[in-house]
Amino acid sequence: MADIQPTIALCHELLKPGGVFIFSTSCIARASMFLKWLLPIGGKLGLIPQAQIFDNDYLNGAMACAGFEIAMSESLNKTGRTGFLFAKK
């Protein structure tokens, strides 16, 4: 998706009170420069889906900004490039 924050806000709006949002994604802000350069260009050319470059801290902040209570947030690998988040409305 081109911009993750409106999507997260919509998910919060659609959930019932007490609902949960489980999210896993690649956080490529720590990826190689080549990958950080290639993904946005490939997305703009329509060769691959659009990618937004962010890290786990940005994702947690976007979730909190939308009104979610973060119950758990972890990196699923040593590189910190795969985030897993469990949040409640």
UniProtKB/TrEMBL annotation:
This protein's name: Uncharacterized protein
Source organism of the structure: Sulfidibacter corallicola
Highest taxon in the source lineage: Bacteria
